[in-house]
Amino acid sequence: MLWQEKHRACAAVVKRILFAMAEILVVFHSQTGNTKKLARAVVSGVEETENAHAMLKHASDATARDIKGCSAIVVCSPEYFGYMAGAVKDLFDRTYEELKDDAAVYKKPYCVIISAGNDGTLALAHIERICTGYRFKKIQHPIICKGPVTEEILTKCFDLGMTIAEGINAGIF
Ligand SMILES: Cc1cc2nc3c(=O)[nH]c(=O)nc-3n(C[C@H](O)[C@H](O)[C@H](O)COP(=O)(O)O)c2cc1C
Q1: Distance from Cα 116 to the centre of ligand 1, integer Å
Q2: To test the ligand 1 pocket, which listed residue (79, 119, 149) has its Cβ within 8 A of the most ligand atoms?
Q3: Which CATH superfamily is domain 21-168 in?
Q4: Is 76 in the pocket of ligand 1 (CB under 6 A)?
């Protein structure tokens, strides 16, 4: 891990402890930009909330430390061939062994956002199954965006980000 990345991760943990700040990890993969738009809308919703910070990371750059250190995780993936994006699966493959029995991720609040051409249910089911394996806790209904990203769906993602951040700060999740 680069020292800058280590420094950022430590700073986030210190901020969380000192200021009880909600730190929402938003991980994504995107090839043509749809999933990234949804992930960015979640980030905007989190950032709109007082005392909350969002960390937007491509799934390939996210680490076990990020998952351990955050207050909640939002997994954003396109559906490719009836599955999640390879980069998202790779994040799970890289971190599962380290985290599966770690108390720091037990009941970690999570939520899923899928971008799909016309379905999205299979990618969602696979991600949720894996999240159950980590013993994460689902805190919101998933959002599936079918087809082009609309203003309406971006608003839903924004609201989701806000709801998660406010819920964490209020101790609801
Ligand atoms: C290789 C590939 C496989 C895909 N497979 C599916 C699929 O199984 N089901 C579906 O609904 N859409 C499928 N799509 C459509 C994408 O899910 C959709 O275009 C999505 O918005 C892409 O997100 P992105 O722009 O973040 O990459 C596929 C697209 C690609 C490129």
Answers
A1: 5
A2: 79
A3: Flavodoxin domain (3.40.50.360)
A4: no
Three-state DSSP string of 45-92: HHHHCCCEEEEEEECCCCCHHHHHHCCEEEEEEEEECCEECHHHHHHH
Question: Model's pTM, two decimal places?
Answer: 0.91
State the closest ligand 1 atom to the C-alpha of 32, by its place in the atom list counted from 1.
Answer: 25
Q: What is the pLDDT of residues 90-137, one digit of tens each?
A: 999 999 999 999 999 999 999 999 999 999 999 999 999 999 999 999
CB of 34 closer than 6 angstroms to any ligand 1 atom: yes
Using DSSP bridges, classify how beta strands 137-138 and 83-84 pair: parallel, antiparallel or unpaired.
Answer: unpaired
Residue 147 in contact with ligand 1 by CB distance below 6 A: no
- Check if the beta carbon of residue 55 is closer than 8 Å to that of residue 23: yes
The preferred substitution site among 80, 84, 124 for testing ligand 1, maximizing ligand atoms within 8 Å of CB, is 80
pLDDT digits (tens, 9 = 90+) for 13-63: 555 555 679 999 999 999 999 999 999 999 999 999 999 999 999 999 999
